[in-house]
UniProtKB/TrEMBL annotation:
GO MF term set: ATP binding; hydrolase activity; RNA binding; RNA helicase activity
Signal peptide: none
Residue ranges annotated for the DEAD-box RNA helicase Q domain, each copy included: 62-90
SUPFAM superfamilies the record matches: P-loop containing nucleoside triphosphate hydrolases (SSF52540)
The name this protein goes by in its record: RNA helicase
Catalytic activity: ATP + H2O = ADP + phosphate + H(+)
Amino acid sequence: NGAATPTGSRSAGGDTEEEDKKPLSKAEQSLLQKVVRKGLIVNKNDIEVQRKDPNSPLFSVKTFEALHLKPDLLKGVYEMGFNAPSKIQETALPFLLANPPQNMIAQSQSGTGKTAAFVLAMLSKVDTSKHYPQVLCLSPTYELAVQTGEVAAKMARFCTDIDIRYAVRGEEVPRNTKLKEHIVIGTPGKVVDWATKYKFFDLSKITVFVLDEADVMIATQGHQDQSFRIHKQLSPNCQMMFFSATYDKDVLEFAEAIVPNPVIIRLKREEESLDNIKQYYVMCRSIEDKYNAISNIYGVVTIGQAMIFCDTRKTASWLSSKMTQDGHAVALLSGELTVDQRISVLDRFREGKEKVLITTNVLSRGIDVEQVTIVVNFDLPVDLQRRADCETYLHRIGRTGRFGKHGLAINLVDNDASMAVLKEIESHFGKKIYLLNTDDVDEIE
Ligand code: ADP
């Protein structure tokens, strides 16, 4: 069972200094997030359920048993360490597994259990007595398709009769072949080719269609049209599932064009806040002074880990080599790394192999490393006009209720301009940022 990991390589990052000012593409960000985050994000907001079908009962389950899954599938779920359904799963799964099938549009932030939900639904709906593709899942990129395939393979570990096939770049099928696998996971372009040009499988026989990462999909040129082309050939009885981390107008329009009579469920993102965060600043005269401040702070980071944000790739790499020379174990993540390299840096950091991660804006938002207790702004975040970028500040420093614990933010200020930025941030959030003397860092604990 399962799917062999396809061959092919991940794309490289850019290689100019300017790249670091550019945020990662949505697809890259989504991928990094998936790889870095190994656990579920627990969101305290309530799920909103909007139903288009007034006859369908609204219910939710508190256990996986209550879903009456095939025993081997339930075993796979438990083997993955899932004890109880996540918030989104509680609500989505009864609809997804219902008979007759229900269509769904679901939105919740990354890390809340969407993938696990639809993969479970996909695996439950396979009829293993039939040897052709019945379930089709579209992902925006090669890497994201592989991530989903890996979850499916894990969950289906004990369902040895379910076969999965990737339809992604690098995968070849001989002409005139008919696919026998039950599940196809692929990118839109490759799926269009396989299904319509080469007729390796029949879209009208698909009973479950999943569109994952819809917001990333529409951000990618051509994917939306290809998704429509695929969609047009599906049977009217095909169950449609549509998942997205965000839900703006574009996504909503796409969703409504794809999914007839959906149950719509939404879990709003928890707001980040600076509550429970102690904010300090350190007065420095030069970049060397900033370095000394960092060294002193490094000496007292006894619990958890620290992240240091620099303005440019040059500063980040300077700081990283200087700290390394001084015998500190630091990790460096900046824009010139390939996606593979970024993943491996983040993996090592998450495992605690390094206590400090130095980075540029590539990591300013979207990626949470939960064990980080100290965030240092080696350079304060500014926009293109060099004014305070309060939103980025909040993303770097802020926490949501899920972390509960206290955090510490340290801002290094080295001239009038950065002092002005600091003041702007202070007044924007209405929270005082205290002066810290790093010769006497004991006071921060
Ligand atoms: P999303 O698709 O919303 O980003 P995922 O399905 O990838 O979320 O889940 C995020 C993380 O939480 C993954 O590491 C996944 O293995 C884990 N996870 C998912 N569902 C559960 C659950 N019910 N219990 C524990 N962990 C879970």
